[in-house]
């Protein structure tokens, strides 16, 4: 039985990574949790109560073999048995080495490359069409000419980076500036999506890899940051959202955690605007509602039988907070030099 | 007359609020609004019966109570809280 689990995504800024709430969920379930960090100032590194050890890992741009080699070394040192990766940009690399990881005793529960690519932002329209889900017109653009072509009707639109970032744009100059910004950070393509006004809902869920839905907890955002990220939210019961999650996992055979981002337009339609291929930063809300998805992921990775948990507490809220961790500079220096905290 | 009922998933709390578990919206309720919501929650009463109950509880005549109840129910309908 798996007892020691590693997580990535330890940044906890105004657009926080999911690593800390995933670690919190795992700790509640009794696991020992190890952190994997890319940078020395990811706040989770210094949460000594939550993470027993932390190790740096190479950036995704270093390639899969560098990642595998480093994880092998961490395995030898700490004995991690399972990894839950939490960044969009790293997932493809983790998927590509999942068999190699398994052979050295590190289990994962991730989608295959086919499922993973079906929900890419530039494939969302095709996916939604197959699933029978409403979605706003979404196109991927690779140069300014295409930007101008798709912005011809001069309507408000959302410009999104390949992996992260979304900006509501009101005119062509806005769109071009945002296109340049996201291209320089994440590369091409950049995604343009028709803007839909309405209420924002999200759903955290988990697929069993065979078309079955193991968990689905929807929430309504009650407060959002200037980046559109939920700073507070409340769990709700919404059959239509759960049905949307079921269609998604059934059509993609999704394996592992995911998040649906949905806008309910004023005509009452639910529009799927994005599928994130990992657990969201608000995932601890689902654990607090009685659905501990990180724990379910570890048990599935371990080959255990996991029954679907589709009942949960409704009306549970999360309110995010900013909290200063006080750390000795020597701890920071030690981690910066050695890449390890024990 | 037709009986009026709150849609499923509306939680009415005696402390003076209601929560729509389908949308996560919450609403504050004071005095007679809370009483009317309890009546609607039961689904067993029509506007006249609710108005009579309000008249019994508060020092107002039936005509005034009926107007207030109708107004309040109209608001609930606009908010999508009724069946």
Q: Your description of this structure?
A:
The complex is a heterodimer of chains A (342) and B (83). The relative contact order of chain A is 0.16. The two termini of chain A are 23 Å apart. Chain A has twelve helices and 15 strands. Chain A has 342 residues and is of the alpha+beta class. With 83 residues, chain B is α+β, with helices and mostly antiparallel strands. Chain B contains three helices and three strands; from the N terminus they run E-E-E-H-H-H. Chain B has a three-stranded antiparallel sheet with strand order 1-2-3, covered by helices on one side. In chain B, a hairpin with a 3-residue loop joins strand 1 and strand 2. The mean pLDDT of chain B is 92. Classes of the chains: A alpha+beta (342), B alpha+beta (83).
Q: Number of DSSP strands of chain B?
A: 3
User: Which geometry of chain B do the CA atoms define?
Assistant: globular
Give the SSE string of chain B: EEEHHH
Helix content of chain A: 25-40%
The residue-averaged pLDDT of chain A reads 94
**What is the 3D form of chain A?**
globular
H/E element sequence of chain A: EHEEHEHHHHEHEEHEEEEHEEHHEHE
Radius of gyration of chain A: 20 Å
Helix/strand-derived category of chain B reads alpha+beta
On the 0-100 scale, what is the average pLDDT of chain B? 92
What is the radius of gyration of chain B computed over CA atoms, rounded to a whole number of angstroms?
12 Å
Strand order of the largest sheet of chain A: 13-12-9-10-11-14
Give me the secondary-structure category of chain A: alpha+beta
- Give the largest interface pair and sizes: A-B, 12 and 8 residues
Distance between the termini of chain B: 16 Å
